[in-house]
């Protein structure tokens, strides 16, 4: 990794993880000295976002067990330990697996300076973009997501509705429409005080893939990020989106794997 990327990764770790802010209404961030974790409603996202780089290997198993006990005491049947490839101590992934966590698909942490990104929105004929403004629009987002990814959007629906109602300045939802039908949706989470905004979603229904809609959604959100004064955009990218984002100017800084604990 070149020095610029090392500095950017250190900034990301400090601002977005060690000094994490609540990412929505009804959410709190707790710090124990050894970990930073997010706690929200049982149907929201709960998990460990940072562990101390000097976490003693002799203490690691006890720290993991303490997080399990903490969330179970709150009645949360599921939470995530968001592990990055550069996290220490070595072997933390194996310890999580031994404690009953399950690894999900790894993603690439990509970051780009907003000032270096194109904000020119180029769309195929018949497609238009518009922002999400109300509950009906959220249902269109859900429809696009479920058609694109084949997965249930019920948990995200709840979170997006809460953001739209209680923290509209911290959230941007975007729909790609063909007539009255949504063919793609995406969102941007703004993290005031960090300089970062996060890009999420961007799944496109199969018939409309390969036509530049994903790139247009990135450019559209980059324009809004620039207007809002954000310095960096961050994406946890899948294997499908990572090559597109790299071509647009994003740099790979690490990989991140969700380790999910589910009470039995």
Automatic annotation (TrEMBL):
It comes from the Bacteria. GO terms for molecular function: acyltransferase activity. Keywords: Acyltransferase, Transferase. Residues 127-264 form the N-acetyltransferase domain. Pfam families: Acetyltransf_1. Signal peptide: none annotated. CDD domains: NAT_SF (cd04301). Its EC number is 2.3.-.-. This is GNAT family N-acetyltransferase.
């Amino acid at each position: 990794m070149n020095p610029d990327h090392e500095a950017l990764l250190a900034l990301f770790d400090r601002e977005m993880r060690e000094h994490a802010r609540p990412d929505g209404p009804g959410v709190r961030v707790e710090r124990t000295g050894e970990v930073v974790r997010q706690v929200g409603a049982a149907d929201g996202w709960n998990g460990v976002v940072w562990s101390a780089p000097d976490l003693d290997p002799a203490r690691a198993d006890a720290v993991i067990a303490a997080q399990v006990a903490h969330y179970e005491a709150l009645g949360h049947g599921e939470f995530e330990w968001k592990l990055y490839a550069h996290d220490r101590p070595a072997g933390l992934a194996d310890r999580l697996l031994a404690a009953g966590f399950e690894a999900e698909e790894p993603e690439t942490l990509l970051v780009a300076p907003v000032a270096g990104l194109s904000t020119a929105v180029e769309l195929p004929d018949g497609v238009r973009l518009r922002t999400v403004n109300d509950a009906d629009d959220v249902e269109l987002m859900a429809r696009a997501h479920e058609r694109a990814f084949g997965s249930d959007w019920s948990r995200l629906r709840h979170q997006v509705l809460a953001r739209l109602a209680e923290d509209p300045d911290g959230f941007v939802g975007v729909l790609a429409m063909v007539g009255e039908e949504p063919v793609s949706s995406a969102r941007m989470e703004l993290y005031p005080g960090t300089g970062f905004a996060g890009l999420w979603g961007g799944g496109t229904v199969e018939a409309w893939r390969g036509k530049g809609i994903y790139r247009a959604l990135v450019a559209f959100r980059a324009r809004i990020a620039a207007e809002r004064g954000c310095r960096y955009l961050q994406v946890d990218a899948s294997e499908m989106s990572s090559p597109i984002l790299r071509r647009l100017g994003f740099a790979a800084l690490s990989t991140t794997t969700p380790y999910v604990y589910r009470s039995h």
